[in-house]
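This part of the workshop introduces the protein records we will be handling. A learned vocabulary of local backbone shapes supplies the integers on the structure line. Getting from the letters to the tokens is the skill we practise here. As an example, a complete record with its sequence and its structure tokens follows.
=====
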Amino acid sequence: MKKSLFVILAVVALCACGGKDSAPFNYRGLAFTMPVTQFVDSMQARGFAVDSAASDSGRTVVLSSHAVKYRVLAAYQGEQLQVVQETYNLSTNDSTRRMWQELRDGLEKELGAWPDCPLLSDDHKVANFDAGDGLISVLLENTYTPTLTVRYTRKAEQK
């Protein structure tokens, strides 16, 4: 009886651990594990163009598109993506506040998790989401020029 109970508990434990196959950390469906050149090619296929004047060869690449309200900056080391940041082009503090709330609510639903919000004033807000092997931060800074950014940061690999 004890052996059969032990076997049942072992199977339940394996199912609980093995059933949690989470997708790798990604930026809008593009995995952070892909090489930078493949990431840039994928973004170009989505209608983005490389802004060579704003890019730093060997460290960052900036992509923009007339179809969206944001620019994308991808920072990398070697061929490995480290950070992808969207910077939104919005004109008023009210529009950035509204967009911050929409982005925060969307990520909350998508990730099924509450964010850590270390700063929540009217003009400065931060929402940090733990997305497994990466962090997603939604940052609002309404000072002289409204700034809204969403930063996808890959966590350092555990050795």
The longest strand covers residues 80-88.
